[in-house]
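worker-03 picked up job from queue 'complexes'. Input manifest follows; two sequence lines, order preserved.
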Amino acid sequence: MKAVLYFISVTFGLLMFISCADMNTVEVAPTNEGISRVYSEDYELVKAAVLASMQSMNINIKRTNQSSEGFSIMFTKSISAFSWGEVGRVLVVDRQDAGSEVFVHSEKRLKHQFAGANEREFSIFVFNGISQILEKR
Amino acid sequence: MKTIILLFISFFLFSCSSISVQQEASLRFDTLFIAKVESKKSITLDPNESKSGRVLVGLVSTGPIGAIATAITEDDFSNPKAFEYTFSKNDNEVKVVLSRSITAIGSCVEVISPDDSKIEILRVVTPEQCE
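worker-03 finished. Artifact:
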């Protein structure tokens, strides 16, 4: 009986972890996923401001990509005492005459954990950084 | 003995962790120079976190299940990507810059320094600014 319970708990634990989010999860998410903000400044300046803002944060930027949908930046936040880490994507979309729209989307690697940073916290820091830089220009 | 081991593990986890999001460096946006992109190649930067480190934390915190769970982290986890750009300036000086920005060869760009790291930011500007 003990062995059966152990097997069930290990299997359940593994299934829980296997269903975790990774960079691919956020990379293939719909382009309008996450918290967004529109900036009236031109696309090239906003892309640069987004990168500068993200480089100043305690996150790990993994890769960037330019596609027809926009400029995307993939990032992670490291595993810590109370979190299995987070993964995220910041997407900058060219809205032509309407300026540029920035989407911040993130997921906790272990979706059901209470601790760790959420999408709102990441977006606050990214948007604050962008605003500070744009004010300097 | 168990308490000492647990204390050691806790100390290890706390010392290498930052739970909340923070702004680590002061924000800068300083123009270094404006020049035309001559060449571009993809490079792998030094790891900003390692898969083995993640597996170790998984192992010490939740045992074999944690180790297995952290081992299935995405393949390119430990290899952050960027680009190495070569520029020619008006005075025929050649500059090499690392950046996560994506621009095409031939573009006229403003090279911006956001911090003390060697990774700069590129912003495409009008071709007239490179003449």
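worker-03 released lock.
The mean pLDDT of chain A is 89.
Chain A has four helices and five strands.
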